[in-house]
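Support request from a user on the community tier.

User writes: "When I paste my structure tokens into the form, the page sometimes reloads and wipes my input. The last time it worked, I copied everything first. Here is what I submitted, just in case something in the input itself triggers the reload:"
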């Protein structure tokens, strides 16, 4: 192990909990009411549709993660498949999106915090900043400690959600599900686009692949296992929320008559009264903090990997000698996180992150196709994604279809991220790298030239 290597300290259970922790957050505690406003009770189907669109990317990424068990995840795979320009766009965009999602989680918990703590509205942002600083410190202190705490927190939250769902089964009013698809089939598709980000965490665990024990075995199991558990949990919990809550409260119970930001608590009040509201609100605060922790843990590995590839300054690739964590990358991520909490209306701009996540997931499917077609010796995965290439083609096209439902502003925001990332590459990274990626290998092969665009960097 060299000074810049990370410690492989995460087993299957904490790895799976990191993945689930990145999903147990706004997807359950905030987004159901926003989805309900788009689709009515059929928001339940929207969560299933979103999971179906995410699955090809999860399968593709599970394969690529076992071939390249290094930090970087999305960035690494798209860079090695499609070249450093696309890698830079994917790395910066995925980092940006995940930091936004973490900021959204910490700010979003304020709505739940107000339901049980005597905290004035004006102080909520300061509470979020304090929790954000704690999350950053935890991630600097060590991945094993962060992963262990994540495992404990997520286990407790899942237990609470299961108890909520089981109890709801005895109190649900079946009339709440009729009419079912109040906005038709396109309403379900639109809602699926908005709740898509709920599943984004399933592949983020690949960004800490370098810190996972036996990655060829544990990464696919953690990613696919966590997605299976969370799909069932989402459908069960959202179904309980719809069955327990007043439709009027779900659609207009939020600030300024918008959709409720506390749908879990709305349903809990019906189920268990005041105690239920407090119980769920505490779980929400813990879960959203956990989601932010998983987000910082995962997103900070993007600058680390890009620095190692000379696409970002070398200081971001430095590993702390004491804690064996990418300290500078974590601190940069933390600084952006805290700035967003303090100065940006994160809840509105979270849609931009969701739009880019859909785009990145779509291109992850193309990355796998490029690796398979290139068939270079350095690409040797321990896990093979089934259904190739039809599963990947479906994931790519379905992702683009959902993206069209996000609205003009999120799409423009995604375009802005692409342009800014491309400028970063041309101004800094282009002169420092000669990689071509698997796509370049295919082009060179058709010209009769020998080139392994993936292994070239490792040989330098």
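"...and here is what came back when it finally went through:"
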């Amino acid at each position: 192990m060299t000074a810049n290597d990370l410690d492989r300290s995460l087993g299957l259970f904490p790895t799976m909990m990191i993945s689930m922790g990145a999903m147990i957050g706004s997807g359950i505690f905030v987004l159901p009411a926003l989805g309900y406003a788009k689709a009515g009770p059929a928001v339940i189907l929207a969560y299933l549709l979103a999971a179906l669109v995410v699955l090809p990317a999860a399968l593709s990424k599970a394969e690529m993660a076992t071939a390249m068990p290094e930090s970087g995840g999305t960035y690494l795979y798209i860079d090695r498949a499609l070249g450093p320009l696309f890698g830079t766009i994917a790395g910066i965009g995925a980092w940006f999106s995940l930091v936004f999602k973490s900021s959204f989680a910490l700010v979003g918990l304020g709505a739940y915090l107000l339901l049980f703590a005597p905290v004035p509205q004006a102080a909520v942002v300061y509470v979020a900043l304090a929790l954000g600083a704690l999350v950053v410190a935890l991630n600097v202190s060590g991945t094993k400690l962060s992963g262990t705490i994540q495992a404990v927190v997520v286990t407790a939250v899942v237990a609470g959600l299961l108890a909520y769902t089981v109890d709801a089964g005895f109190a649900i009013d079946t009339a709440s599900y009729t009419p079912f698809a109040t906005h038709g089939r396109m309403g379900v598709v639109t809602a699926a686009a908005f709740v898509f980000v709920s599943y984004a965490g399933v592949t983020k665990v690949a960004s800490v692949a370098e810190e996972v024990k036996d990655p060829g075995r544990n990464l696919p199991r953690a990613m696919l296992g966590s997605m299976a558990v969370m799909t069932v949990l989402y459908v069960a919990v959202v179904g309980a929320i719809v069955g327990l809550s007043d439709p009027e409260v779900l659609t207009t119970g939020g600030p300024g008559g918008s959709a409720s930001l506390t749908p879990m608590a709305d349903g809990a009040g019906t189920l268990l009264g005041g105690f239920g509201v407090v119980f769920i609100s505490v779980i929400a605060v813990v879960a959203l903090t956990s989601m932010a922790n998983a987000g910082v843990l995962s997103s900070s590995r993007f600058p680390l990997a890009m620095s190692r590839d000379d696409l970002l300054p070398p200081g971001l690739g430095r590993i702390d000698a004491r804690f064996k964590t990418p300290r500078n990358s974590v601190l940069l991520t933390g600084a952006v996180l805290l700035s967003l909490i303090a100065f940006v209306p994160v809840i509105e701009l979270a849609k931009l992150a969701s739009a880019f996540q859909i785009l990145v997931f779509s291109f992850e499917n193309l990355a796998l196709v490029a690796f398979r077609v290139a068939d270079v010796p350095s690409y040797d995965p321990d896990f093979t994604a089934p259904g190739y290439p039809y599963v990947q083609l479906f994931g790519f096209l379905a992702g683009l279809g959902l993206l069209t439902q996000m609205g003009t502003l999120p799409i423009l925001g995604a375009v802005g991220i692409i342009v800014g990332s491309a400028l970063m590459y041309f101004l800094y990274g282009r002169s420092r790298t000669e990689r071509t990626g698997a796509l370049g290998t295919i082009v060179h092969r058709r010209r009769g030239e020998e080139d392994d665009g993936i292994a070239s960097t490792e040989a330098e």
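Agent notes: The reload is a front-end session timeout and is unrelated to the input. The chain has one domain: 12-459. Residues 263-299 form the longest helix (37 residues). Escalated to web team.
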